[in-house]
Amino acid sequence: xxxxVVAGRLVQTDYKQVTANQFLFNIVDADSINHxxxxxxxxxxxxxGFGGAVYFAWPSVMGQNWILLGHxxxxxPSAIFKVSKLKSTDSSLNPFQTMANQPTDIAQIGxxxxxxxxxxxxxxxxxxxxxxxxxxxxxxxxxxENLFNFVSSFSSQLPLSPTETYxxxxxxxxxxxxxxxxxxxxxxxxxx
Length: 192
Prior knowledge:
Elements: E1 2-6, E2 11-12, E3 16-19, E4 22-27, E5 35-40, E6 50-58, E7 65-72, E8 78-82, E9 107-115, H1 116-121, H2 135-152, E10 156-158, E11 161-166, H3 169-185
Antiparallel strand pairs: 1-2, 1-5, 3-4, 4-9, 5-8, 6-7, 6-9, 10-11
């Protein structure tokens, strides 16, 4: 019925049914998890009027902290979630009470089959959503914002036109050198 893909790993379909409407996946090597994809395999659809709330729990010695990632339905049978930034998210929600004591290197993905009316009332963690922008568009936007912020810090007003700001061309050259240096050190620095 369900499948999970952790970025860089093989597909998992080995869920455990813990109640009539709750299913769990164990994800080993939790520290290397960044993105997960949860999907219906196509063998069995949800019953009419139902969908699946997708939860994620990082392992912890203090007990698990379940975070609502989002939903899957027959109309939207798959979803990708960014979970790497959720480690520090605080949540007291624990819809899967039976699995409170897990080893500290195993994360879990829980799927709870609930009525669509209930799912529409739930608020997923906003930091779990994956950007809809294409990577190049997102990069371009971040680059232009970086340029504007950098150059603005060097701008000055000239007495001839007090409503206009001017920027020395050497500032653009300095920004370019800094940007290229950062790209060489970490090509994804702009994502943080």
